[in-house]
Amino acid sequence: MSKNNEIEVLKAYEQYLAYFLDNNMNGINSLVKFPITYIADGESKSLDAFPVTPKEMMENKQWDTTIDTDTYVHGTNSNKGHVISSGTRIRKDKSVIEKYTVFYAFTKTKDGWKMYAISDIILE
Q1: What is the C-alpha separation between 12 and 15, in angstroms, rounded?
Q2: Inter-residue contact 115 to 96 (CB < 8 Å)
Q3: How many angstroms separate the CA atoms of 114 and 79, rounded?
Q4: Cα 74 to the center of its chain, rounded Å
Q5: CB within 8 A of 7, min separation 6: which ones?
Q6: Tell me, what's the pLDDT at 2?
Q7: What is the spatial distance between Cα 116 and Cα 47, in angstroms, rounded to a whole number?
Q8: In this predicted structure, what is the pLDDT of residue 3?
Q9: So what's the pLDDT on residue 1?
Q10: Which residues make Cβ contacts (< 8 Å) with residue 37, sequence separation at least 6?
Q11: What DSSP string runs through the chain?
């Protein structure tokens, strides 16, 4: 695993996260290679739009922030990188909404590293 690729993939993920927390869909879309594959429970979907909208997620779940995050690059080569992240989403009153883990696949393009697959699990 190239250290440079690992650093670049993590940087792309961190930029995605910043855009997500700012509800910046244009920013998110700039880091996605469409169609993006979304791996749901028992099926995968090829989508021409990002599978979630941060604003709707925040409103629907009363989500304020995420705590106890753990993010790492699981592996890279010159063309592909995997990021795994987990954490706990909480409301403003600090009550727990859910614990999750997410897998992201990135590919290297002429415009930099782009996300092309995502799979999330809400832990019970």
Answers
A1: 5
A2: no
A3: 10
A4: 14
A5: none
A6: 75
A7: 10
A8: 87
A9: 59
A10: 44, 45, 46, 47, 105, 116, 117, 118
A11: --HHHHHHHHHHHHHHHHHHHTT-HHHHHHTEEEEEEEEETTEEEEESS-S--HHHHHHHHT--EEEEEEEEEEEE-SSEEEEEEEEEEE-TT--EEEEEEEEEEEEEETTEEEEEEEEEEEE-
